[in-house]
Automatic annotation (TrEMBL):
It comes from the Bacteria. PROSITE patterns: TRANSKETOLASE_1 (PS00801). This is Transketolase. The keyword RNA-binding does not apply. Keywords: Metal-binding, Thiamine pyrophosphate, Transferase. InterPro entries: THDP-binding (IPR029061), Transketolase_CS (IPR049557), Transketolase_N (IPR005474). The gene is tkt.
Amino acid sequence: MTTAELKKTANEIRKDIIKATHAAKSGHPGGSLSAADMFTYLYFVEMNIDPKNPKDENRDRFVLSKGHVAPGYYSALAERGYFPKEDLLTLRHIDSYLQGHPDMKKIPGVDMSSGSLGQGISAAVGMALAAKLKNKDYRTYTLLGDGEIQEGQVWEAAMFAGARKLDNLVVIVDNNGLQIDGNIEDVCSPYPIGEKFAAFNFNVVEINGHDFDQIADALKQARECKGKPTAIIMKTIKGKGVSFMENQASWHGTAPNDEQCEQALKDLEKVGE
């Protein structure tokens, strides 16, 4: 895909995040919007996957460690063809398979159920280790929130991944600087993030998470790095693309009402132009 096509796809994913959370009257738009560009690149360029065969044992794996940004994850999966886009409007509804957090037993394309913060990276490390033990070539990617890395389990998993030289693992941190309680520095600062992962024997790449060239280069570096897992620390804007949501912690877990939904979609139409 060209950069223009990637931007267009990411914008469609952002529109669906707004529509889905609006229809649900709940959910997490802020961090979904900040991660939309990375979701787009992973699912449309980087990962070896096939929506027609979501359980292929040789597929690359993805674990959404920050499971609450399911609206972004589901929108990417739907855009890629794993299930109908209209189903996104059933997000969080009773009897919908699109629950508030990803469920691997019900949603095509979901490799791991997640939502309890800190646990996703541990599952991803296990998948990467399994590939090594079975001499399989598949790679494992996991997306964490910068607030999520305040969890101790994250660092236990990182220590293990570095010690086992899991160079088939890519840990991506969505560093949008905000969590539900406010600025991550004020709550419990995880900085310097890159240096922490480097101390656990990770290859560390720091990028602008909204720049597709930088995303592509970082993932290329991850593929070429041998003997170390890679951590991509991506600086992003929470609520990216929607004027009144950008850099506002209040939009971490708040759904837009009718007027806000209309305004958000207008903002994204302008971006699309």
